[in-house]
């Protein structure tokens, strides 16, 4: 039986986020097929296609040259992360006027919990219409959001994905089964190849069968408690209101030209570690684990991690440990290089040091960070990084964006109208 | 086509308390005058401790990306793009 409590969760999705924001910034691009790609060269990966480009069949994840094969005149732009973060912050500031519980799921997705909120009284659909109108008036007239309303996060997200762009759909106990009958298993987020295979093995081939399956069958299909969680999710009960704390910091780089040369790779590793180290220290953390991974030219994946006795926080320590791992990689060309640190403790500069060199190490690290805070990242950096000015650019991660916390401005986003 | 410029420019800027509107009105660049017909987006970010305001504007069939450095109080034309 579906949870018959009123819908109090709203999921908002900014349609074709990066591309739409670019069209907002440059009105001459509006109504045209455009794409934002990691690199504008033919091998660059398309990060976002505009609504017009999507209608032609151009999708996120395609190469620029694939997009051009579909539509040769497509306009391809490099990403401008500061612009997208700014729009995200403005959206969040606006949404916080409606609910104290706003969860930023990614750069273009937000979830609002309206339980106990006055907006709940006047109806969430009316509230959603008002939010959509205010976004156009106060942030950008070209921005459209798809909104889903439901009794839990799962259904609200699904509802927001059913009509794009500019949708507004509520799913509750009256229409949930009807909505399920019109979609495929793969349309359910969290259900992709592996889970479809599990469900098929249990004799479940459609979302309706999935919904009507008893708990023991789902437990068998998913091999345990996950089956019970799916039952609750599908029946409108909230089990996804969990916010995970930060477990790691990491940065990665897709090499323009693949290489096996350890000298070349160590330079890129150094820059990745400096970016990661800055973020680690800005968050007030130290790390006791470091992990390096490579996507190799034969599309195999290699990775190794190390735990260290002492907590690390300086770039030198992090780089030294990461390089040790990198040197153990197979002798194959690398396409993507990634580094991350884990086993985090929020105790930067709080630990007592027995040795004198610890004090000078701290002072040096703090001084370098202070200069970079004042004049911008990489003003003072390792000599190993010379010649890497345009590599490892600022990017926005897919999915969860803990990184957004690092870019929150102290300044208020003033509400001033621009012509 | 997008072209990186990165040149200092003169900008006439309007800040009206009556209309609560602020916007760059005119750009003077390489001896020519460009009247801003629309501000697409204004955003800002910090480079180090310096706050930079970016105005993405159009004048006719040309799009401009202007930046205002709040420390030096200078305007820069960062990019120009035209549709082919």
Structural commentary:
The complex is a heterodimer of chains A (419) and B (84). By secondary structure, chain A is of the alpha+beta class. Chain A has helices spanning 17-25, 51-55, 64-70, 81-95, 118-122, 124-138, 153-162, 176-180, 193-201, 207-212, 215-222, 225-234, 262-282, 315-326, 356-375, and strands at 9-14, 34-37, 46-49, 75-77, 101-106, 109-113, 145-150, 168-170, 249-259, 286-296, 301-312, 334-345. Chain A has three domains: 1-174, Alpha-Beta Plaits (2-Layer Sandwich); 177-243, DNA polymerase, domain 1 (Orthogonal Bundle); 249-394, 2-Layer Sandwich (Dna Ligase, domain 1), CATH 3.30.1490. In chain A, helix 11 crosses helix 12 (225-234) and helix 13 (262-282) runs antiparallel to helix 14. The termini of chain A are far apart. Chain B has one domain. Chain B contains no helices and eight strands. A five-stranded antiparallel sheet of chain B has the order 1-8-7-6-5, with no helix packed on it. A three-stranded antiparallel sheet of chain B has the order 2-3-4, with no helix packed on it. The mean pLDDT of chain B is 94. Classes of the chains: A alpha+beta (419), B mainly beta (84). At the A-B interface, helix 1, helix 4 and helix 15 of A face strand 3, strand 5 and strand 6 of B.
């Amino acid at each position: 039986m579906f949870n018959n409590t009123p819908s109090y969760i709203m999921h908002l999705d900014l349609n074709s986020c990066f591309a739409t924001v670019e069209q907002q910034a440059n009105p001459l691009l509006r109504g045209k097929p455009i794409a934002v790609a990691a690199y504008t060269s033919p091998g660059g990966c398309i990060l976002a296609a505009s609504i017009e480009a999507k209608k032609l069949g151009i999708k996120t994840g395609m190469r620029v040259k694939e997009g051009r094969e579909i539509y040769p005149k497509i306009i391809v732009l490099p990403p401008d992360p500061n612009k997208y973060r700014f729009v995200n912050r403005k959206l969040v500031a606006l949404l916080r006027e409606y609910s104290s519980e706003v969860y930023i799921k990614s750069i273009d997705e937000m979830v609002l919990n309206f339980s106990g909120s006055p907006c709940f009284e006047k109806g969430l659909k009316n509230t959603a219409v008002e939010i959509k109108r205010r976004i156009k008036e106060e942030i950008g007239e070209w921005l459209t959001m798809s909104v889903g309303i439901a009794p839990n996060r799962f259904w609200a997200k699904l509802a927001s994905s059913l009509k794009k762009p500019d949708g507004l759909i509520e799913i509750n106990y009256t229409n949930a089964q009807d909505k399920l009958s019109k979609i495929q298993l793969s349309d359910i987020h969290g259900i992709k190849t592996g889970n479809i295979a599990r469900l098929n093995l249990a004799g479940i081939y459609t979302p309706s069968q999935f919904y009507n399956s008893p708990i023991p069958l789902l437990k068998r299909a998913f091999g345990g408690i996950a089956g019970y969680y799916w039952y609750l999710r599908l029946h409108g009960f909230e089990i996804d209101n969990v916010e995970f704390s930060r477990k790691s910091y990491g940065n990665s780089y897709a090499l323009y030209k693949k290489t096996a040369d350890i000298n070349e790779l160590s330079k890129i590793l150094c820059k990745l570690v400096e970016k990661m180290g800055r973020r680690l220290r800005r968050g007030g953390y130290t790390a006791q684990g470091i992990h390096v991974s490579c996507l190799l030219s034969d599309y195999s994946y290699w990775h190794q991690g190390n735990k260290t006795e002492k907590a690390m926080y300086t770039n030198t320590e992090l780089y030294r440990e990461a390089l040790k791992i990198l040197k153990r990689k197979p002798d194959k060309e690398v396409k993507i290089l990634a580094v991350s640190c884990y086993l985090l403790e929020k105790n930067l500069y709080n630990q007592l040091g027995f040795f004198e060199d610890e004090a000078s190490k701290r002072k040096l690290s703090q001084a370098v960070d202070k200069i970079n805070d004042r004049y911008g990242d990489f003003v003072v950096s390792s000599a190993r990084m010379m010649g890497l000015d345009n590599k490892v650019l600022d990017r926005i991660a897919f999915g969860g964006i803990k990184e957004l916390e690092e870019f929150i401005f102290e300044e208020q986003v003033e509400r001033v109208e621009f012509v | 086509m997008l072209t990186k410029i990165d040149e200092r420019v003169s900008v006439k800027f309007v800040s009206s308390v009556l209309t609560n509107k602020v916007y760059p009105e005119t750009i003077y660049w390489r001896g020519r005058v460009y009247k801003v017909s629309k501000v697409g987006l204004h955003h800002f970010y910090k480079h180090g401790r310096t706050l930079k305001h970016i105005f993405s504007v159009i004048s006719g069939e040309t799009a401009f990306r202007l930046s205002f450095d709040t420390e030096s109080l200078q305007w820069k034309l960062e990019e120009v793009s035209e549709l082919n």
